[in-house]
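sorry for the late reply, my laptop died twice this morning and i had to redo everyting from scratch. anyway the thing you sent over, i finally got around to it. pasting the sequence first so we're on the same page, its 829 residues, then the predicted structure underneath. double check i copied it right bc i was rushing
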Amino acid sequence: MERKPSEQSENGVMMHYSRRTTQGPKFLPRAPIAVAILSSVSLCSSALSVRAAVLEEIVVTAQKRAASLQDTPIAITAFTASALQDKGVNDISEIAYFTPNLVFDTTSPIGGVSSGAAVFIRGVGNTDFSLTTDPGVGTYVDGVYVSRSVGGVLDVLDVERIEVLRGPQGTLFGRNTIGGAINIISRKPADDFQAFLEATAGIDGRVNVRASVDVPISETLKTAWSVSSKNRDGFVKRPLAGDELGDEDRLSFRGAALFKPNENWDFQASVDYTDIDESSSPSVGVGFTAAFPDGTPGGAGVVGASLVENFSFPLPTGNRLGPLAPGSLSPTGDFFEIVGGGLNIFNQFVVDDIDADVSFGDQVAFSKIEVLGTTFIANYHGDTFDLKYTGSYRNTESKFANDSDNAPFQITEIVNDNYDVDQTTHELQLTGTAFENHFKYAAGIFFFNEKGTDDVRVPVTIPAPGTGPGGGAGFEAAIRNDADVDNSSEAAYLQATYDLTDTWAVTGGIRYTEDEKKYAYTQNIGANLAFDPLLFLIDDVAAQLEPGGPLVPGYIPIIGDGTGSVSETFDETQYYFGVDTKLNDNTLLYYSFSQGFKSGGFVLRYVASVPEVLSFDPETLDSHEVGLKWESADSRYRVNAALFASEYDDIQVTFFDTLGGPLTANAGSADINGFELEATAFLTSSLRLDLGYGYVDAEYTEINPIPGLSAAITKDSKLVNTPENTLSLGLEYATTIASKDATFRIDYSYTDEVYNDSQNSPFLYQESVSFVNASARLDLTENSEVVLWVENLGDERVIVSGNSNFGLGFHSAVPNRPREYGVTYRHRF
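ok and here's the structure:
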């Protein structure tokens, strides 16, 4: 069984199908969803298969050379352009519905940004968008690393292929990736003129339009242009603010040029632009608390707001006695009665069920993002090697805000009024073969720099020091967390494969990374969003509130004296080893050992005062994987499976401190073991089955003591966004109706219980859930088709993300969208 050299293929077709997803990620795909049960349509009994019952080859470039998916010894799920279209995938988050052990949330728990990629593979990821932390899963567009999650829910505009690589990938990619990689390859301009139009209409005012045109300028210069517009109404109503959350208003553009002056050289240039102008992520209130999970007093925001409002238990809803009178240190009524009265009133703004789709917040809630990216690629093709340079620049400008407590009181709000990031990368890569193709290699050097600003304003109401059963005061204030970062990374990597025999091969890899992170800050507390000084200083609050006491205006520093800067350098060497064998022409068996590394950083946001900047250490991952890839001789059946065992150390996790500040810290170590199975089969010439199953057993083995947390984790805590079992099943039936090709599809998905935060808050716990989606497609002509779809057929409602903050005492959840249905029309010119 000779190991065949791979051949480049422009259009390997992925025979995975799926469904459509509406709200980001872990539960339900969005691909066109069924409109009819297969048996409910009268079909031509003599109809022949619309497609040949043969699985087409899928070509991937995960190892920096074109190769068949079945010959690549890595756990990969790949989607070609046709597969993405058939599944109705509109942005990259929706591939999570068809990829085992991938969770892709579209918003961060903190801040309310409506396009914030929080991606996890095999239990490894990051929920925070902070500029001082890094993603756990890398996203690459044409080889360019996308450093930030804000604006990271990318449109699948003019995409040729998406590859999801599970496990560490550092010895093959410029930027280090500890958990895995999402590799997006854009479509190159065509040699001939062509055009494409897609229009979608659905309930809730949904109108999506996508178009592209390829214009060849000459024999050597080709161009391609594409645009996408998405609009949809919100679904979470805010009666007190008179608006809705969860709407969609996005415009994307991409232009690309390919210049081939001769056989040895080619040059590619592209520009992409995205404009998002919509409300914040759809959030609803699910609880208020004045204690930590262990029963000790907490909920500083709830306590402070209760004291300022001076609630006297039990008050009817809306009866506000006014703020605490100046000069009176003890409010009217007993402390416990006032706090109890506050909880009684606040909890009337909590939804009874996640499907209530109503928020009682009354403050600003918006998400505005502009992303501009440019890429230049130069390729030199030698006889036995290719030399490639990739340079890029990306800029993200954003403003976003949400009323975090979802109540008409100032407990907590968050405003990121200046989130601006500039990123540049340079990568030089050499790939090639030697010894009559028995030796293959990929080597590169990589340079990355990122400069960013994140100015955060957090209006809060908190109790003054000394507040408690004996009396006290609360006051309204605004926390100022201003950050400027300058992050850089340099790396060199090498991976090589040698064919020991016709059937056995061994692979080795090495990578060296050096990251430097610089963080400058201004952190203090003022009176309001305009940042006027407080009327009094907290340290002297008792004296200043007593009759005749001096009111001394000023600002309260949070870190040290309020301003400063820090920097730190992190470096690591990682290794890769693998061996694989072709048992026969259709079966590949492989083993690999890989290491992952993510550098440390600094905590960006604070509520409680600290003497100096808090930092966290790098995290590391050692992963063992055994995989099998098999395809039947007649190419009707395909099965890919992988077993993995990982040791995950110094895990970077986001917690909340006792006053509600989000802290990134090293939680400890965990063992993550699991299994993945993907299968596609033509059961008959017209009926295809798709199956995807993922299993993850993740357990903490060691806990690092972290002082000052509002809810501590233990060895019994579950890793965030890591369901134990996930399953997807799809059936697709192809036939003809009145001489027209028709395809009917139905999809089922199951997800085990999920903990949506690291502290396993009961307010964000999501029990196991199943979804059913379906679609019906009719080819009107050779170049046009219409698709009827239903998403979330059973109208299941789940929590997909949220912000559960025992330190401040509010708890909010982000629900998925309810059932949707509509029609899509496509035409190729």
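The first strand starts at residue 59 and ends at 60.
thats about all i looked at so far, will dig more tmrw
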